[in-house]
Amino acid sequence: MSASKVNITHSTTYKQKYAWLKFRWFIYLLSFVHLVTMAIRFLIEKDFENSEDVTIRVYAKFKWKLITTWFNLLFFVYIPVCLYCDWRELKGNVTKHLKTVKRLRDFMFTSLVLPTTAFADILFWRLWHHDKDLIAPPAVDSMIHLWEHHCMHTISLLFVIFDFLFVRRKRPKNMAPGIITLTCFISLYIAVCVQSVLNEEYLYPVFKKFSYTKLSVLAIYTYISVLFYHTGQWVLVDLIHGQTVTQKKRVY
């Protein structure tokens, strides 16, 4: 291959990479605007506290203990980091500092953002179609519309899928740090749920309907599920991103 053809190829590759980076940065920005908008709507605009229905008023008291709140708080940290990394890369300012931030970004996504969001969103819709009274009292329908549920539990999952597909990652040599971080995070959340149940503060109706035995099974199911999403992602990473890297090595 002549030098001119090589230069043209690299120039085309760079332009494609730059275009994809701009597109990805725009999606991150759009996602963050959506996140802030929904936070304002649920935490400020919706007056759960002064509702006449006691089953709705509990949301004002327990909203910071809901798993949806927890993974959205992760997004409030994760998305700005993504915006920063891609902005620096678009400017061509790839330093050692940026590489460190990108490693932290990848660790946060693979260890916390993806497993917890996938678990919470998929379980939410499974329970919704089975018996939605298990996750929220019927009176909540007057305060939270179906499209708002999709904003909280569908768009977030689509964002995670987008990020997974459009950010190249590779399987870590040691998965123990990610598994430990995820296990500690979920253990903390389960501890919050246990403390609430013992105080007869039921974050979800299912906690009141289930016996302690069934709640124990639910806790075990939670651990198994999030660990499945964490370890399963690396199989897909090998299939999607690993194959791309192999092909490029063959071309060049």
From TrEMBL:
It is found in: Endomembrane system. It catalyses: 13-(9Z-octadecenoyloxy)-octadecanoate + H2O = 13-hydroxy-octadecanoate + (9Z)-octadecenoate + H(+); 13-octadecanoyloxy-octadecanoate + H2O = 13-hydroxy-octadecanoate + octadecanoate + H(+); 12-octadecanoyloxy-octadecanoate + H2O = 12-hydroxyoctadecanoate + octadecanoate + H(+); 9-octadecanoyloxy-octadecanoate + H2O = 9-hydroxy-octadecanoate + octadecanoate + H(+). It comes from the Eukaryota. The keyword Membrane applies. The lineage of its organism: Eukaryota, Metazoa, Ecdysozoa, Arthropoda, Hexapoda. This is Androgen-dependent TFPI-regulating protein. It holds the Pfam family Far-17a_AIG1. Keywords: Membrane, Transmembrane, Transmembrane helix. The chain crosses the membrane at residues 25-44, 64-87, 107-127, 147-167, 179-198, 218-240. One of its GO terms (cellular component) is membrane. The gene is LOC112045189.
